[in-house]
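Sample pair:
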Amino acid sequence: MRDEETHQFLKLKPVQATLSSLKMLDVGKWPIFSLCSEEELQLIRQACVFGGAGNEVLYTTVNDEIFVLGTNCCGCLGLGDVQSTIEPRRLDSLSGKKIACLSYGSGPHIVLATTEGEVFTWGHNAYSQLGNGTTNHGLVPCHISTNLSNKQVIEVACGSYHSLVLTSDGEVFAWGYNNSGQVGSGSTVNQPTPRRVTGCLQNKVVVTIACGQMCCMAVVDSGEVYVWGYNGNGQLGLGNSGNQPTPCRVAALQGIRVQRVACGYAHTLVLTDEGQVYAWGANSYGQLGTGNKSNQSYPTPVTVEKDRIIEIAACHSTHTSAAKTQGGHVYMWGQCRGQSVILPHLTHFSCTDDVFACFATPAVTWRLLSVEPDDHLTVAESLKREFDNPDTADLKFLVDGKYIYAHKVLLKIRCEHFRSSLEDNEDDIVEMSEFSYPVYRAFLEYLYTDSISLSPEEAVGLLDLATFYRENRLKKLCQQTIKQGICEENAIALLSAAVKYDAQDLEEFCFRFCINHLTVVTQTSGFAEMDHDLLKNFISKASRVGAFKN
């Protein structure tokens, strides 16, 4: 189909979902999208901007169709030719496929995983980075099945010329350029097809992956980080600059549980379960955020602000770093429009994606941009709306002089306690004195929403309730909320609550937090007023882990 025909096809084909039923994906800050009309922009649900100058784009529409646009270097648009296109063209070869995740290399080459876990690749292939056993550029998407045929791929990552995928069972496969050991095979021979990365990862369950220019990172379910590949700038965090041909644990992160990892061109960021960011590697543009331009071969804490960090962002083709806090603030540092920003800088953006659209060189996406429908109510959303609704409720709880409105049938379905207590109860008012209004309201709301929204101190009260009612999932959510809200001032109180309610995982987390912030914690009023037995056990346990060596 010619460009102009495709353009008209896009405009004229009936849209199956109404525009009002979708949030519009805000791509206006990306220069390449200025080539699209307003009508086309309103149809976009997912998008990825890539290429050496940010001059290529792939996007999906409300009809689950895939379109591409741009310079088409090495056939990276997957259209079967190397012709550039200034108007969107539909990628028919992936018709019917839904994109779960996507990454790109420097050639560029594309690695895409569908929602069914299949892998497709195309584009530059001089180093076998497509994984199809050849070194011929791929002009159309190729299904990659070698060693992956019975696997479901859930995450993909690309270095400059190598590829990495993660399967649903926690295995990692790599292929492509291997001059520095980035395939993790133990050699430096290029890998033409997917090969499982084993060694230290053999019996580990990997939960997330990332690639720098010529290195790889994998986080396992215990929170440990394993690294391999090029290390000339210290980007592996091992304390040296020697390349690593097989996975090696970052020992300097001992006792720290990492949740996410992100790689820039030659630097690495990790996010811990305490909301702390560590960085290491190249720093010539200040991309580590340490206040200087000195490379670091060991993990170094990045001070953003007192608020917890919930997201980190970097991309293997840039020297830019970004982070978002729990309060919604977005920071950036590193190479920002030609400037070297050596400390995290507070922006006016609401998402980290905008940092890369406006300040990265090139202006490329660090992840697949996506948007979901927002006004069609699912069953879960409908139930959420009915919580505490006096118009439809048939039961009222009187707590601290206030009413909370609920529905008997839902409570009996959702909670074993109510199933028995409401069985022969025809009352429409239940008085509750054992728990406070905020705690009991949060409990009832959880039964409608499967989520909680409380301060860590209130979550302690809800943890008490969850223990009393034997609601184990709620107990876990409370522990998670407490973890996210822990600070030096409340750490001892939360540790005490964890011990009281036999929440062992939470107890270990709070204890580890106290040890990591021991100097400040021991100066708080909570520590001074600590229960004698708890204090005795705390000191004993802290001594065993070497907290008082200095």
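Residues 456-469 form the longest helix (14 residues).
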